[in-house]
Here is the input.
Amino acid sequence: MKKCLCLFTVSILLLTGLNAQRMDPVLKFSNKYYRSNPFTTTFGTFLEHVMNDPDLKNVKKQLRTDTSLFVFNGTYTNYNPFDFKPSRVDVALVEQNVQLYVDRPEGDTIMLFVLIAFADSTAKGAEELKKEYSKIQRRSDRWFLDRKEEDITEANVTGMSSNYFVDYAQVSPVSVEWVLGLTKVPILRLTMRIRSRGNEAVIPASLYDSSVPSDRSQ
Here is the structure.
């Protein structure tokens, strides 16, 4: 009887974990928009899936050195997760050093998983891109705990940025932006912030990030 009870308890815990994963807003966002999902496989397999994707062309890669961080980018041939037709869709993996905690001035290395849709150069292209931004915003508002929206105003660059939040992380794991003036045509940019814990992807400064200090300063 005790053995049966233990098995039942383990089954409940497994089902609870699976259901929680299915309900996770970052996982939903990744499943909806990204061709490669960092949270459904090992981190190494995820990187291989992105970098060896046969749908990519114009691939460029910069390996990490003593003076530079890892950068990878390419252009999809056919993949388009959006409801409008961009002139081009790019994917990028960019390592970035950020200071997540006051007591860690040397910073931490995270990875930006970026998807960029390029509109055409017409006024219609810009309007379609802004409408797509609004659609993503409405969908993401149903998934995430909170959103902080900001205007982008830097020299000749304008746009809007939405940072989304979950209750188990101290930093925004997902950002969505539309930007004019950064390139020759308007762009829609989706960014997920991840880091490798062992051989799995986690959200930086989250409950699942083993590098989070016990006495959090932020």
Notes: The beta strands are 56-62, 71-76, 88-98, 108-118, 146-154, 157-165, 174-180, 187-197, 200-202.
